[in-house]
Amino acid sequence: MYFGFRDICVSYGSRPILDGVTMDFARGSITTIIGPNGCGKSTLLKTVSRTVVPASGEVVLEDRPITAYSVKAVAQRVAYLPQIRMSPRDIDIRTLVSYGRYPYRVPGRRQTKEDAEAIDRALALAGLEGMGSRLLNNLSGGEKQRAWIAMTICQSPEILLLDEPTTHLDIGYQLEVLELVRDLRQKLGITVVMVLHDMNFTARYSDCIYVLKDRAVQCRGTPAEIIEPETMRRIFSIGARILVDEKNGCPLLIPEKLPADETQ
């Protein structure tokens, strides 16, 4: 296994959250995890950053448990952007992005030429070139999210984890962010794993989809295999009319209310 989860079990106190979850992410792919609210999607990603420690099972990186690597070694290869983030109100974009260089810095040594070049590159890739001095607090929602993504790219990761990267953004910024994610995959060859709620964006930007519900993986497949009426009914208790987005080559979901006798 290049990267993924093997038999992950997590409980909060006496309440089980994940029970034997296994996922395998192909190198260079974009994989999206979907499922109802509270099904454990964010908890699963947190096991990679070790902010959540599974009761059993393991995160795997190149056929080894991620715990076999140092925290610094993992940070040089895997970047994780959580849904909830905190930063000082008066921080500028360049300073935020520079935090991505921490896994490479030597204590007591100032920022190197290599660090500065990595920051410049991340800003350019995120479409923020020339904006480094702008305060994060003065940015639009889309600009702010691009700044955070630039910080993760500054880590020079081969794997990028994004927990609901479009949350609280209007549809224009959601599109902007997901186009950036796909562009980064194409330019850098990184592996992307993200959590999304919008089924149509999931269909459009994913190579593979995992469906999580009732503490376990319910199914896995391509957008055409997952975004279909029976899966939508079983997982989200909705009806679904499926059209074809010919331009983007993916299914297009029109949600519908199920009759009362068909709801779960």
Describe the SSE topology.
Layout: E1 3-12, E2 15-25, E3 30-34, H1 41-49, E4 56-61, E5 64-65, H2 71-75, E6 78-81, H3 93-98, H4 113-125, H5 141-153, E7 159-163, H6 171-188, E8 191-195, H7 199-205, E9 208-213, E10 216-221, H8 223-226, H9 229-236, E11 239-245, E12 250-256
Parallel strand pairs: 3-8, 3-9, 6-7, 7-8
Antiparallel strand pairs: 1-2, 1-4, 4-5, 9-10, 11-12
Helix pairs in contact: 4-5, 5-6
What are the salient characteristics of this protein?
single chain; 264 residues; alpha/beta; six-stranded mixed beta sheet; four-stranded antiparallel beta sheet; 9 helices; 12 strands; 31% helix; globular
Q: So what's the overall shape?
A: globular
Structural class: alpha/beta
The end-to-end distance, rounded to whole angstroms, is 36 Å
Q: H/E order of the elements? A: EEEHEEHEHHHEHEHEEHHEE
Strand order of the largest sheet: 6-7-8-3-9-10
Largest sheet: 6 strands, mixed
Flag low-confidence runs.
none
Number of strands: 12
How many separate helices? 9
Q: Could you estimate the helical fraction of the residues in percent?
A: 25-40%
Give average pLDDT, whole number. Answer: 94
Beta-strand content bin: 25-35%
Radius of gyration: 19 Å
